[in-house]
Specification:
Oligomer: single chain
Radius of gyration: 18 Å
Shape: globular
Order of helices and strands: HHH
Number of strands: 0
Number of helices: 3
Length: 115
């Protein structure tokens, strides 16, 4: 299930004033575990939508994600933490396409054994 697919609340909602500190992860291990889980979820949603694997996505997209987070979103300003998050973003994108490739190869294998 996509963790960002919908928003469910019970009770009234309103706009908050000030800054909201959102700590998404307990530690590095939690961050990496969730990243892999979300990558698999995204790959599964790609499968359901009919998106096909492309080698260019596996080889180039992680670098683009890294550059986008580190430079364009100025992750470098957060020091070593910004570098870690940028690397994890690249891992996230790489894993998503690797899971998509894994699924397609498994499907190919199932088709071959049915013959």
């Amino acid at each position: 299930m996509d963790p960002h697919a919908s928003l469910r609340v019970s009770g009234p909602t309103k706009r908050l004033e000030g800054d909201l500190l959102h700590y998404s992860f307990r530690d590095l291990q939690d961050h990496l575990e969730r990243t892999i889980r979300y990558s698999r979820t995204m790959a599964n949603s790609y499968v359901k939508s009919g998106k096909r694997f492309r080698w260019s996505c596996l080889l180039i997209s992680p670098w683009i994600a890294f550059f986008k987070h580190l430079i364009l979103k100025q992750g470098w300003r957060d020091g070593w933490r910004g570098w870690l998050v940028s690397i994890i973003r690249a891992i996230d994108v790489f894993a998503k396409y690797a899971f998509l490739l894994e699924h397609e190869k498994a499907e190919d294998g199932r088709r071959l054994t049915k013959r």
